[in-house]
Amino acid sequence: MRRYALITLFTLAVPWLAQAQCVDNGYTVVFVNGILNSREKAEQSKFALQQKLGKQFNGESLFVRLGYNTTHLAGAGDLLQAAVQGFGTSVTNYDRDTILLQIYPELTTRKVLLVGHSQGTFYTNNLYDYLVTNGEPKNSIGVYNVATPANYVAGGGLYLTSEFDVMIKAYADGAAKVGGVPPLRPNSTLYGGDSLGHSFVETYMAEASDRIVADVSGGLSRLIAENATDTGGCFTPPAQGLGYNTQAVLFAVADPVAVGIKTGSVAAYQGAVAVKDGVVWGLGAIGSAAQTLNPFAWGEPHTENVPGSFTVVGSLYGSSLDEGDLHELLGASVASAVPAKKPVQAQTQSQPKPVLTEQSSPTAEEPSGEVAGVGIEVPSSPVSPVVPPPNFVELQSPGYGGGGGGGAAVASINDSEADVVATTTATSTEAIATTTDEVASTTNEVATSTPEVPAYTALYSQTGAAVLGETAGGRTAGSLAIQTLGTGLQGIAGSVLYKIHGSGLADRISQGLGEVILFACPTSGYSSCVTSASSNFKPVIVAAAGDDAYVLVTFTGSDTNPYVFNPDLYYMLEFITFEDMALWGSAHDSYAGGEARWVYDLGYTLDAQVADNAFRICSTTTCGDSF
Amino acid sequence: VKNSLLQVWRWVKWPLVVLAVAYGVLVVWRTLVLFDQDKTKEAVAAIHAARITLADVNGDNLPPPPDPAENDATVEGVDKNNNGIRDDVELAIFAKYPNDKKARAAALQYAMTEQMYLTKVTNTETWKAVAEENGRAGLCILDSDTKINWEEIQSQINNTELRQNRRTHNFEFITSHGDAEGAPCDVTL
Hints:
The structure holds two protein chains of two kinds.
Chain A: H1 2-13, E1 23-32, H2 39-53, E2 56-57, E3 60-67, H3 76-85, H4 94-103, E4 109-117, H5 120-133, E5 141-146, E6 159-160, H6 166-177, H7 200-221, H8 242-270, H9 275-286, H10 289-292, H11 309-318, H12 324-336, H13 436-448, E7 458-462, E8 467-469, E9 480-486, E10 492-493, E11 495-501, H14 505-510, E12 516-521, E13 531-532, E14 540-545, E15 548-554, E16 563-564, E17 570-575, E18 582-586, E19 596-600, E20 603-606, E21 612-613, E22 615-618
Parallel strand pairs in A: 1-3, 1-4, 4-5, 5-6
Antiparallel strand pairs in A: 2-3, 7-22, 8-18, 9-17, 9-19, 10-16, 11-15, 11-18, 11-22, 12-13, 12-17, 14-15, 18-21, 19-20
Chain B: H1 2-49, H2 54-58, H3 68-71, H4 87-96, H5 101-119, H6 124-143, H7 150-157, H8 161-170
């Protein structure tokens, strides 16, 4: 008997996993569903995502996998888990490890983007942390979260949350009520969809599929296959030890009993009240539906919570397992009742600072000239405008990847196409800000209190911006605009300023579109150029007029910052634009080191348009607000 | 000594009996599990082997319209031509894509896998096999030049409460998964 006992223990303790071959070519999107989501909806979400994303990206295979976040103990286990996740921790890594173990044989590509929905976003963050901690390169893993109750996106990824997502709103209100940290601020307004505005398929995919595809594509474009842990698979799986298996056995024993109890409750409950009525009643316990639907009430407690309402909600949840929406609602609501501690990584997606004042921009016509080389540019604010000042347009950019790292900026520009001369006037070179908050505060100073453009130190520039080029209509599908920079670059890569044209730029920029990636290429040239010098950019509109805007991308916040140019390497700027976003430039190539190109299928072709991208690279975190 | 042994036996007798019975139950259970595993392997292989044919796409063996009452009386419904696609859904697909073989092929393949969610799932392994084939059918849909309304096909397959309940029940076996390997479309056109 003892022998059998030993054999049993050994069997439970030893990992037994199939290994998948891991290749550099190709991308995998792993969708992690939300708490208590209907199982069918979880699968439908994966399928819908696959249909929207297609089979290929950048000429490589694109696989969509479901990382199923299962329900335990008829939901009670998930409620506890979600509640504790609100504190930024986890009761157990069981679910995370289960997902990892299940997707381990499914993953065959080095480049992986984790896409989470609702409570699944806690897991995408956890999965990212696990993978990075266990040897996977940050550049090959990304996260994109939808309808997230979490207060950050791991790895500086993007997210999408609707103003009208009732459950996230309820979660935020609950967190605010108990003094906890609210989830990331909503960054979209989706009017249609399911009654709760929370369903991945019926709300987010139905109302914002283009944006999701753009965000996911942006996330994928930043992934770089790098050799990681040599385990034979694409990552090191968690140990499937005795503890894990014991938990599995316990769940296996407990789940059927719990489901049976729940099923009985459902029958009794449904005899009296319709399920949808229950949703309304549950909402009533959490807060006023009318105020919940008011986007302007964000962050403010909109109603008094009924004492013990979360217990009530929990009971209600338990009585209607088959109603996915109700489950989602209740799961989020219960979690929201838990006070949250300060997030460890919240700095990467800090909440935007609201309310900024207008700033008169230097609308000067300046002497024309372009300098490709080191120089210090001084803004031209003292110069009087020679053209009528444009109408001021207020724009706000919460920043990339987390709702406002870059802070909001309101400013204006004129439409002057004059190049800015680079002078050698000395200015104090600002130190590169090392945190997002510092960047944000710098930007806010620009927008709120400083009438003049802050000093900056320009390294390289091509500021002719009279011609509109790099239009969406002129590019090959799936391509992105490139400005090659050549070799010989020196100094700190602090920031980039460029001019862009398009409709709804404030919204697009707030989504992270319009960001610029600085690529460091081999000494041999631009082929095999896959190493980004920084990947944690937060584009900010520093000046805007009509459909034009000057966008500042600050090269700070990632692990590689501050990045110092190596004069032996080739460099290039990649502009992450989408649809109606076109770059201003000049009719001729004045920057000797490079030219405008498209990147497509890992190849670089000369620009189909006549314009050459206008840009300015600075060693400072500010880079002016116009050319 | 004999008394001592008897004393010891008195204490260990019942625990040993309990352990023996437990062991017997475990053996029986494991035997059944092993039989079940073999059946599961066969079922998974059958799911992955299921394919629509060019004849199905061409409509060489189109079934007659089924009697609605008979068709909706069971989860499986009526499949007179025995190609894994319920007859009412098969006819609806032909009506929807009368002149587009490629779209028809993708839609029929997807419908077959949706039907398998109802008829072939008995445990996690079989659910996963169907989901993988369903994912492959999704890739085939992407190959089609015509936009295929997969949600409509899904609704047609799960058109009764009986079928919806079965689908919900079978989705209890959901697990993480990818797509089946191989060419996306069963029939290349």
